[in-house]
What we know:
2 domains, 14-stranded mixed sheet, 9 helices
Amino acid sequence: MEGAIPLRKARHIYTVRSLQHRDDIRQLLSPHRSYAALALGYLEPHLFPRAHYFLAEGDQGRALLFYATSSPISFTLTLGDDRALEAVLRLHQGPRWTFFSLETHHQPVVGRYFSLSQTNLMLRMGVDRSTYAPPGLIANVRVVRLRGKDIEPINRLYSTEGGPAAYPARAIDEGVYYGALVNGKLVAIAGTHIVAPEEGIAVVGNVFTHPHYRGRRLATMVVGAVTEHLLSLCPNVYLTVDANNRAAIALYSRLGYKVEGTLLETPAVRRDFLGISSWLRRVWAQRRGGDQGREIVIL
């Protein structure tokens, strides 16, 4: 109708707060155990000080942001409703460089705050003691537990294809890493992103085989060794694999892993280089929250 006043878009209010109590966080994450394995793992007492958990709640739902600062890489994970996730990311984005795990529908929201280098669909696979199937032996291959003292050959192997590798010895000692040796040379490796016996959860990662030794089942050997070790500590072990990598999926399936869900995983760089924009938004959000110790976001 001519002269009519256009309707204003409805605005939604979200309360954002930092979560400090492990039991509260666990209750939020446990229904999403396989997807949120990393975030659950950081509830371990010795890891919890490195972790940050933020929850946004409003009339359009709620969302959780987790990030942890660790070496050699930081981790970030998002969970929940898109609009609520927008609210929390406006204020809290975490490290500038991070390895991001996100639900597939989060990509547009996360992409506004981070540059995502990969958008391939990934499969989260899991194994437990009842489904695990150990790999057979391979002649002339020795599989050994790796320690921090082995950091020089470890970094040399990881940098084989030209990328720099600077894993600290501490990361190897804190995790569970196994390597395959051929004629005394380290040619394949598998390790962990998280080992959390108290939470009963572990995540396998950092799997790599020297290009000249691929196709010899060495990855099967080292992933099997890591998995078997982890299952002696935790009832649930998870890993992530590209949905298009049929060879890797077949490898993990032979070890007893089963697909439990899909997600996106990617290296990411925060767009707000210095974090000034999010800091200013936090100041306003804290003023709206008054003395309640919470932040109020209006979208």
